[in-house]
Design goal:
With 296 residues, this protein is an alpha+beta fold. It has one domain: RutC-like (60s Ribosomal Protein L30, Chain: A), CATH 3.30.1330. 24% of the residues lie in helices and 29% in strands. It is globular, with a radius of gyration of 18 Å.
């Protein structure tokens, strides 16, 4: 395993995306557009692979109705004029992600309602939702990144986990909507597998609260099952160690040396490992991992 990159606290910028996504856009030109007083959209391109970023400035200061309405507008701006079936990956950076918003919801639940509504309002309902992660960051803005291009995308689920769109109302009246993973085929017979942020969740329940080692084991088992589903789409066996790029989110960096040691002992030795300090969508979760890699 390559040594982890220096740890830092993420702020949701494009520089906080995993290394493989940055490589795809390293030579792209950025063009920013102000869509409203507090909303900015930036296009990175042109080219067969493109990154779109949307920032809702000052989202942390918005009360619940305004946050939900403006977050929906931000997500609509993210999806505008893009074929949903050509979206390879989405990253959602939610400020104060677990902070309370009303009597029954935290900010992540309010964000999920906004995201759900943005997809619902598309002219045609997409056949599937894109692979995505939703994590906190150290800034005050809601920051969204979407990677799209000339792709054919085949999503897949994790049989150990309930599909997010079918979560119970324990996780909000409107559910999170994303795929656990996808096979992304380019127009040059190139294929990638991308796996969403994955944690110690079985069905829809967080398990092993307070136990980092057990949560890590459960997370790796979930990754294995998602990779197997990708293998079915490829017509051959696929294990997570075949994916070269791993990004680990650790919400608590106070015990990082011990947790880094656990990671390097349990993760495949050949992967490129990155570590980010970011809050997760559930306070009881201690680790989340996403993966990607070129296949063939």
């Amino acid at each position: 395993m390559r040594a982890p990159e220096p740890r830092f606290v993420a702020r949701g910028t494009a520089a906080d995306l995993p290394a493989w996504a940055q490589r795809w856009n390293e030579n792209a030109k950025a063009r920013a557009q102000r869509l409203g007083p507090d909303l900015t959209r930036t296009e990175h391109g042109p080219g067969p692979i493109r990154l779109r970023s949307v920032v809702l400035h000052g989202a942390l200061e918005l009360e619940t109705p305004l946050f939900e309405r403006h977050a929906q507008q931000a997500y609509a701006a993210l999806l505008a004029d893009i074929d949903p079936s050509a979206i390879a990956r989405v990253w959602n950076f939610v400020p104060g992600i677990s902070g309370p918003m009303d009597a029954t919801r935290n900010r992540y639940m309010a964000f999920n309602a906004a995201r759900f509504s943005a997809f619902h309002d598309l002219p045609a309902r997409p056949g599937f939702f894109p692979v995505a992660s939703g994590v906190g960051h150290a800034g005050d803005d809601l920051v969204l990144h979407l990677l799209h291009g000339d792709f054919t995308v085949t999503p897949f689920a994790n049989p150990r986990q309930r599909a997010p769109e079918h979560y119970s109302e324990r996780y909000g009246p409107l559910p999170p909507v994303f795929a656990r993973g996808a096979l992304v085929r380019g127009n040059r017979d190139e294929s990638w597998v991308v796996i969403a942020g994955t944690a110690s969740i079985v069905g829809e329940d967080s398990i092993h609260p307070g136990d980092f080692a057990s949560q890590l084991d459960e997370t790796l088992l979930n990754l294995e099952h998602v990779a197997r589903e990708a293998g079915h789409a490829l017509g051959r066996e696929l294990l997570p160690e075949a994916l070269s790029d791993w990004l680990v989110y650790l919400p608590d960096m106070h015990h990082t040396p011990a947790r880094e040691s656990a990671l390097t002992q349990r993760l495949p030795p050949a992967v490129q490992l990155e570590i980010r300090s970011q809050a997760l969508c559930r306070e009881e979760l201690l680790v989340e991992i996403e993966c990607a890699g070129r296949i063939g």
